[in-house]
Amino acid sequence: MCFIVASPMTARAFLSGHIAALSGRYAIDLAVDVGDETELGSIPARARIVPLPIRRKVALLADLTALSRLFLLFRRERYAAVSSVTPKAGMLALLAATLARVPLRIHIFTGQVWTTRLGWKRWLLKTVDRFMARLATHVLADSPSQRDFMVKEGIVSADKIRVLGEGSICGADGERFRPDAGRRVGIRRSHGIPETAVVFLFVGRLNRDKGVLDLAEAFAALENQAAWLLVVGPDEANLSGEMELRLGAALGRTRFVGYTDRPEDFMAAADVFCLPSYREGFGMVIIEAAAAGIPAIGSRIYGITDAIEEDETGLLHRPGDTAGLAGLMAILAGDAERRQAMGEAARARALRLFSREAVTQAWLDFYRQLLG
Question: How is residue 138 annotated by DSSP?
Fold first, then answer.
């Protein structure tokens, strides 16, 4: 079979464990936009790598080139199945696989960009998702609420889309993401954060859809001077400057870290995870934070409502409600016992329902049903 993704980071984060498990039974190829195979971690030891220039944004000439190369690859190799992740890779792979008559064409949706768009852009992006769902022989969603949302919006019929296991595309590694007193002290000291501080954490790409501006405004409204904010992730939309303005006097208790390949260190150092997003397929980062033993505050949208069990492993607010977000942050900042209880419940639930082993087993079972 062949997996198709655009980014090496996506392949490494989402597919490493699955490819390792599936390679014991099937011959695996991975088509990905990569120049240096070391970017793929351990995957090249388990799968043949097919470098393919798939651009994340629309680039007509490059997209046509990628489409033709995929078509030729599929015709030559005669794969039993083609599986794609992410929108651009999915569109190109599904179209090429249909033209090449690949018998099994699987796509997993991990979130819908169009949920935050308006007008013709929303219509166009929804149409693309409908077209992809029609081209695929099997459609997967990475959370039950995302599946229900896609059916409700008419993207795909209920009998064609399913969720593997309890949800999540890759599951959480309970050994990598775990409470760790040593990492907690080390990260705090290296960033000048007091050991007694209540640390709120955001991990992800800095863009408007992730709600980072709401987070800055809400944190600025907190009166608890023991509260600190850690913002970890690449500033892909150049929003750090606007965040700093909204933080105001709270900027002194905020640390911007940038990209890291060790988010588990910052989760071990934090007390509460925050994801005030406007769209998520599942909110995998919440489950990773849960495995690290910290509760979460998130927006009440599809995807996140699967990752947070309200009042048990975290708290939910209306998307865009900065006052509501600030209120929940104030509640947890002032209640250490509740944070502790929620964190313990969050880790137990993450390891019970969303462990890496459980999710990988669900993938194995799925492909065995399809391929034998």
Answer: E
Q: What are the φ/ψ torsions at residue 32 (nearest 5 degrees)?
A: -155, 150
pTM of the model: 0.90
> Domain extents for the chain?
2-171+356-371, 181-353
pLDDT single digits (tens) 174-212 = 999 999 999 999 999 999 999 999 999 999 999 999 999
Angle at 354 between CA 227 and CA 21, to 5 degrees: 130
What is each CA distance from 103 to 1, 100, 142, in whole angstroms? 11, 9, 23
* 181-353 shares the fold of 2-171+356-371: yes
Please tell me the distance from the alpha carbon of residue 65 to that of residue 63, in angstroms, as a whole number. 5
Please compute, for residue 315, the number of CA atoms within 13 A of its CA located in the half-sphere on the CB side: 18
The second-level CATH assignment, the architecture, of 181-353 is 3-Layer(aba) Sandwich (3.40)
Q: How far is CA 304 from the centre of its chain?
A: 11
What are 340-351's pLDDT values in tens digits?
A: 999 999 999 999
How many Å apart are CA 89 and CA 60, to the nearest integer?
A: 14
Bridge pairing between strands 29-32 and 161-163: unpaired
**Contact call for residues 134 and 150 (beta carbons, < 8 A):** no
Closest CA to 274 of 223, 226, 333: 333
Please name which of 204, 365, 183, 186 lies closest in space to residue 288, comparing C-alpha atoms.
204
Q: Which superfamily, per CATH, for 2-171+356-371?
A: Glycogen Phosphorylase B; (3.40.50.2000)
List the strands of the sheet with 272-275, edge to edge: 254-258, 227-232, 198-203, 272-275, 296-299, 314-317
The residues with which 255 forms a beta bridge, in sequence order, are 230
Using the structure block, give the residue that is written with the tokens 């033209």: 99
- Dihedral sign (CA 18, 353, 172, 304): positive
The b-or-e profile of 177-208 (16+ CB within 10 A means b, else e) is: bbebeebbeebbeeeebeeebbbbbbbbebbe
Give pLDDT tens digits for 31-59. Answer: 999 888 888 989 999 999 999 988 877 77
DSSP bridge pairs for 156: none
Determine contact, residues 63/92, Cβ cutoff 8 Å: yes
Question: Residue type for 246, please?
Answer: R
Tracing tokens 């904010």 back to the chain, one arrives at: 229
Give the separation between CA 334 and CA 357, rounded to whole angstroms: 36
